[in-house]
Amino acid sequence: MAGKFSFLVGFGAGYVLGARSGRARYEQIASKAQAVWRDPRVQEKAGQAQQLVKDKASEAGSKVSEKVNKKSGSEDSWTQAGTNGASTTTASSTARTRSGGSGGTSS
Questions:
Q1: What is the signed CA dihedral for 17, 21, 26, 32, rounded to 10 degrees?
Q2: DSSP 20-32
Q3: Are 93 and 103 in contact (CB under 8 A)?
Q4: Considering the chain, what is the average pLDDT of its residues?
Q5: 16-56: per-residue pLDDT in tens?
Q6: CA 9 from chain center: how many Å?
Q7: Which long-range contacts (CB under 8 A, 24 or more apart) does 22-26 make?
Q8: CB–CB of 103/97 below 8 Å?
C-alpha cells in the first residue's frame, strides 16, 4: 500500500511540475512553428507541393477511368454469364429436391 501511495505522490508532483514547465515550452515550440509556416519560402514550397499532388491525382484518376472503361465491356458479358449460371444452379437444386434427390449429398 505504501508503494502505491508513494507512486501516486511522485506521479502527481511530476505532473504538476511538468505541466508548468511543459506549457511554457509548448508555447515556445508553437510560436516557432508558426513563424516557420509564415515564411514566404515555406509557403511557396507548400503551394508547389499542393499543385504537384493535384496534377498526380488527376493523372491517376484518368488512368483508373481508362482501365475501368476497357474492362467494363468484357466484364459485362462475364457478369451476365455468372448470373445465368447461378440461377441455373438454383433451379437444378430445386428440381433435385422436389424429385426426392439428395441435392448433391450422398448417404
A1: -170
A2: HHHHHHHHHHHHH
A3: yes
A4: 73
A5: 677 666 778 778 888 998 999 999 999 999 999 999 999 99
A6: 42
A7: none
A8: yes
Residue whose grid cell is 454469364: 81
> Phi/psi at 105 (nearest 5 deg)?
-105, 145
pTM score > 0.90 for this model?
A: no
Higher pLDDT, 62 or 23: 62
Q: Please give, one letter per residue, the 3-state secondary structure of 35-57.
A: HHHHCHHHHHHHHHHHHHHHHHH
As a whole number, mean pLDDT of residues 56-85 equals 72
DSSP code of 104? T
* Sole residue written with cell 474492362: 71
What contacts 24+ positions apart, CB below 8 Å, involve 83-86?
none
